[in-house]
Amino acid sequence: MRVSCLQENLSRGLGAVGRSVAVRSTLPVAQNILIVAEESRLKLVATNLEMATTCWVGAKVEEEGSITVPARLVTEFVNSLPNELVNIEMPAGGRTVQFTCGRFQARMNGIDADDFPPVPEIADGIGAEVEADGLREAISRVTMAAATDESRPVLTGINVEFEGERLTLAAADGFRLAVYKMPLAKAIEGKTTVIVPARTLNEVHRLLGEQEEPVYITVNEQRSQALFRLSNAEIVTQLVQGTFPNYSQVIPKSYDTRAVADVSEFTRVARMGSVFARDASNIVRLLVTPGGEMKPGKITVTAQAEEIGDNTGDLDALVDGKEAKIAFNVKYLLDVLGVVKQSQVALEVTTPSSPGVIRPIGTDNYVHVIMPMFVQW
Amino acid sequence: MWRTIGQKSTVERLSKSVADSNTHHSYLFLGEPHTGKQTLAIELACALNCENIEEMPCRSCRSCTRILDGKHADLHRITLDESGVPEDVEVGEEVRRQRTRILTEQIEDLQRASMLPPYEGRFKVMLIENADRMTDAAANRILKVLEEPPPQVVWMLLAENEERLLQTVVSRCQRIDVHPMPPAQLERHLVDVCGAAPEQARLLSRISRGRVGWALQALEDESIIEQRISRVEGAIQLLSMTYAARFDFSREIDALYRRDRAAATDTLDQWTIWWRDLMLVKTGCAESVVNIDYVNDITEQAQRLSLEQIRDYIGKLSEARRDLDINVIPRLVFDSLVYTMPRITRPLASGIGLPVVPRNKGET
Fold it and tell me: What is the DSSP string of B146-165?
């Protein structure tokens, strides 16, 4: 193998695949990055057996070849090199790769490329095309609602549903639910539902960067793997097996009270409440009061921590319906307020023991449901 | 082709269930160390993923070779070895640290992996070596996945001691007993297939107690036999040693135990086998003794000991093993062992006596 490329490009490529490297694995080679010199580019691959990321870097290839090298070692070394031409050399059949860049040199002992787990090939199956912008927004609005503990495996993934011209992403962890709908660039036939690990989607989001070209998604026929093709990288992910709970039942069909408030004001008051709620199981109480003749309606947020103190803050809101109260985990409230791009949100409440709904104003593509906390009022 | 030897009926059963695509989601391989549990489990993993439909496992397709080399992405394996370095790679003692327990985190990693479909093969195989060494928390953790098994995942638990496993774990697995091979059969195999000398094969088949893996290893690696000889000699001499010397011995074993737990427990096992031999000879079953190369010493000692003494001491040895398992201070265990061991004061006839001076034929 004899190949040369710019340090900047190589470093970017290693950074792109770096998050897919296995942290601890029963398979030592999964902690390495596969480097393949092919045609006129350098292919970098990393996998943790859950997702496999492939990235291509422009390079001048004089002799083809492949090897795997320890991910951390190569990434840290390349990152500390100056932005000049990096020469990568390895004698045919050898296992030691030599990196040369200006006055710097390194030799690394690698593992045979044949030992590297092959990246699953996904050729046929269901193909879909989505706008990068929409996908970025969709991912950022749902992944935080996915479960992080593994006791219910399907909830650690995002339910992705392709149907006709629409793509629906949903995540739930038993305490909250986030559903985002977006159009597909091209309509597909029938309906396909898969569960993509939240970690993979976060990685897709990271790699999307500023990309403007559409993203191609392919799901294989067994619904066991999916491919996300971005402009600079490809991610193949294993899909969580199982059935996602029927979440449409959880979204309340109606409400008794609806309060429309400014997102930044709401965030400020909620964050203030979180300071005291920290010592009170993160509980904040929301009191929605309708406006009178001359005064506007308001949402009052209070937090009480026993033996520590309490605080109250309120914000103006356009209230429709009767007075209502509900208690939330303030972390969930801040999470959703933090990802909404619109300037106003509507909070829909029925009773203190039924779920609260938050929808951004001006669009109907996003719904966020938060289960209430039971408190003594 | 299945290469596991000495487990004919088990292999037939497993091979049929693979052919009929009727495999269980979790297997428990129970048997003494080195009887072939791991070999059998790995072969089953090969068969489950073999690309050659005519003969599963073929041991030559891409999938089989990757599994056999430990490179397959769908073979997830956890052991007591903390370093994660494969067994055949030589590394220093520092790197190869041994855990004493399988921890919850290890099980959690497998659990997470088991949620996802196989990466390159047909089945994901979760292999847990020393499953009887799981902490209670780890064992309880694994219950859930055994209860609601994800599709295309096969769990294989390897264990030596059923009693140390949770009953709830045992009942959720298909149990496969891996028996030691009858010595005569093993002897034949060693001569016919491995090309061992008849005398060596006879000795190995006996002292291995039918544990195929041990016999095959000993055939290739002479140091194993040397080690065994030094441990048996230790057991012989200890009986006639003074108490001071015995306590020195105890200190040595204690040091060994700290350095290399497996070696120290193996020494205790060797003692147990020795005392079992003594009992066999004492009760007139001399043909079944394991240490056939020391028959004279066994007979000698057996004559000087009473059956009660032998029986009681065997009890002491198994108690000691139990004590070590529950973390009694090792030094106390060993001290008590050497102290309670019966003592033979007279020097053994076959031991160090006066050298016999050969008489010159011409001088009479």
Answer: HHSPPTTEEEEEEES-GGGS
Phi/psi of residue B357, nearest 5 degrees: -85, 120
Residues 6 or more apart from B185 whose CB is under 8 A from it? B6
Cβ atoms A184, A128 nearer than 8 A = yes
Hey, of B115, B125, B126, B144, which one would you mutate to test binding to chain A, going by the most A CBs within 10 A of its CB? Answer: B115
* Residue A311 belongs to domain with CATH number: 3.10.150.10
Give the structural domain span for A97.
2-115
Residues of A in contact with B126 (CB under 8 A): none
Give pLDDT tens digits for A111-156.
Answer: 999 999 999 888 888 889 999 999 999 999 999 999 988 778 889 9
Do A242 and B78 count as a contact with CB atoms less than 8 A apart?
no
- Angstrom distance (rounded) from CA A66 to CA A115: 11
Q: What are phi and psi of B153, to 5 degrees?
A: -125, 130
- The last residue of one of the domains, among A189, A216, A248, is A248
Residues in chain A: 377
Which residue has better confidence, B120 or B349? B120
Say yes or no: A239 and A285 in one domain. no
Chain B environment of A197 (Cβ under 8 Å): 116
- Chain A residues with CB-CB distance to B144 below 8 A: 151
Domain co-membership, A255 together with A341: yes
Distance from the B324 Cα atom to the nearest Cα atom in chain A, whole angstroms: 29
Instruction: Say yes or no for a CB contact (<8 Å) between A238 and B117.
Output: yes
On whether residue A341 sits in a domain, the answer given is yes
Residue A22 Cα, gap to closest chain B Cα (Å): 12
Query: Are A263 and A236 in a shared domain?
Result: no
Q: Tell me if B73 and A222 make a contact (CB, 8 A cut-off).
A: no
Q: Are residues A243 and A260 in the same domain?
A: no
Q: How many CB pairs under 8 A join A and B?
A: 58
- What ipTM goes with this model? 0.77
Work out the pLDDT band at A330, boundaries 50, 70, 90. very high
Query: Residue B57, preceding bond cis, omega within 30 degrees?
Result: yes
Q: Under an 8 Å CB criterion, which residues of B touch A?
A: 69, 71, 73, 75-78, 84-86, 108-109, 111-113, 115-120, 144, 150-152
Which of residues A83, A115, A147 is at a domain's end? A115
Order of all β-strands in the sheet with A233-238: A65-70, A32-38, A41-47, A51-58, A233-238, A225-229, A215-219, A126-130
Residue A192 lies in a domain: yes
Q: Which two tokens stand for residue B87?
A: 């067994």
Query: pLDDT-based confidence at B353, cuts 50/70/90?
Result: very low
What is the 3-class SS of chain A, one letter each residue? CEEEEEHHHHHHHHHHHHCCCCCCCCCHHHHEEEEEEECCEEEEEEECCCEEEEEEEECEEEECEEEEEEHHHHHHHHHCCCCCEEEEECCCCCCEEEEEECCEEEEEECECHHHCCCCCCCCCCEEEEECHHHHHHHHHHHHHHCCCCCCCHHHHEEEEEEECCEEEEEEECCCEEEEEEEECCCCCCCEEEEEEEHHHHHHHHHHHCCCCCCEEEEECCCCCEEEEECCCEEEEEECECCCCCCHHHCCCCCCCEEEEEEHHHHHHHHHHHHHHHCCCCCEEEEEEECCCCCCCEEEEEEEEECCCEEEEEEEEEEEEECCEEEEEEHHHHHHHHHHCCCCEEEEEECCCCCCEEEEECCCCCEEEEECCCCCCC
Contact B116 A24 (CB under 8 A): no
Rounded to the nearest integer, the mean pLDDT of chain B is 84
Same domain, residue pair A94 and A132: no
Report if residue A282 sits inside a domain.
yes
Q: For residue A345, tell me if it sits in a domain.
A: yes
